[in-house]
Structures are given as structure tokens and as C-alpha cells.
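A quick word before the example. In earlier lectures we treated sequence and structure as two separate objects. From today on, think of them as two lines of the same record. Here is Pirin family protein written that way.
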Amino acid sequence: MAVHRSLPQRDLPTVGAWCFFDRFGPQDTVMRVEPHPHIGLQTVTWPLVGEIRHRDSLGSDVTIRRGALNIMTSGRGISHSEYSLGDDAAPLDALQLWIALPEHRRHGRADFERHEHLPTVAFDGALATVVVGELAGVVSPATVHTPIVGAEIALEPGARIRIPLRREWEHALTLVEGDVTVHAGREGEPTSVGALDLFYLGLNREGIDVTSDTGAVLFLLGGEPFGEDVVMWWNFVGRDHDEIVEAREHWEAGSERFGHVTTHGAERIPAPPMPQVRLMPRRRKV
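And the structure line, produced from the sequence above:
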């Protein structure tokens, strides 16, 4: 599968508590992600095209489609798998994001939620779906543990809208499809955002103006700056090297910490070797 990673970047490890942002697709493919573990994060799966079967060690077994949200909270440990439906290659396109859990929640129990009906915010020429968190006073039903927003915004052809932002939060935009121009400079200078770009907006903005000639779908990320250290390696989000080593050893030993993914047998993804250096927290440079 072709996968494009927008976050983390060398100089930008997080946007709010968002610490990971992948897009797999658009493509025709057979998706087979065997059971694998997570700690210290929430996974947010947002399909664009196709269907994905999610199974996890809590006993969840659901098929997710366009317009529905899967949000999985690892807490101290969970494992899951993700399959496309059928044995033949089929169209598939989706966003997958991680939210770093804060200290008060990352050692807790695992959880899984599925939401098929999400609230929307109407603008003149656009409609925003609030996937997680809060936008313009509208709140998603998905459980989150830090002040945050994740929203899909669909613009009509020829639209010009102002997206309201919270000044104390940082934000970023990505273009999913179509064309978009962001008017973000001091004098409102236009900047065209390309497909798969992550346009970082920073702090201290009460709103951002965007326009589209042919119509567009955007995804907005944002939240209160995440003040805790983050050490990311493989599928783990921790705080230091030793914590990551311990989680890897538990997975390789088949520890009950990660449970067993429902309806699977012995198949699983083995952990890669640890690097020959000590893992350190990522530091932002922007």
C-alpha cells in the first residue's frame, strides 16, 4: 500500500495533541494489517473511499465506511487489525491519525468507540463535519482527553469562507481533494496548498480565510499545544526510551497487556529491533 505521512515532521512533532497523520490512498489495493500493539495514544480512522474491517483485543469487530468514525483509545495497551473487505484489490482511501494521550489517561484502560452520526457546521459555501473535538461551538460525540479539533471541511466551487479558530490553539490544514488557497499572511497574501501538504498555521489566529475555484475537501487539525514530552517509536507513544523498550518486550513475549485480537489466530506483526541509540523526546523547531 502507498502511504503518505504528513506528521510528525522533523521540526514539527505535534499539532496540539495530534502526533501522527497518514493518508493511505487513493489506490486499488488489498489491505491486510495484521494484529499489532499500541500504547499511549488514540487512533482516529476517517475513511474517504472503501470499507475497512476493524478488530481489536476488546472484542470489537466492525466495518467502517465513509462518514463514520472509529476512535480507539489504547491506554496502557491494546492490539488491533485492519483489513479491506474481500480478497481482490478494491478502491481504498482513508486518513489515519493519532492523538497523544496526556499523563492522566495514558496508563488507563483501553476503549473503542464508533460514531456514525457526527455534527456539522454550515458556512456560506461550505460544510464542516466535526470529527473529533470542537469547532465553532459544535462538539463531536467522540471521547477525547485534551482540547482539540479534527474536522473535514467541504467547499463548494467558487467558495470563500472564514474558518473560525481558537487563538490559544495551534492549527494546520491539509488538502484532501480539489484546490484551495489559504489567505494567511499579514496582508492576506494567498498561498496555494498542494495535495498532501500540511499547511501549519501556528498560534494566535482567530480565523483563516480559504477559497476554492473548483471545490475542495480539507481536513483541519488543531488543539491546545501539547506540553508533555513525546517519544514515538513504531506503534508506541511514550515519554522515555525505557518505557518503549518495556512495551516492545511485552508484545514480543505475548503479554496479556495487549490481549488477543478477536477472531484472529496466531498471526501478528512482530516488533522491529530497537535502534542502537537511546530514543529521545521530539523537540519542535517551529
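Notice the following. The chain has a mean pLDDT of 95. We will return to this example when we discuss secondary structure assignment.
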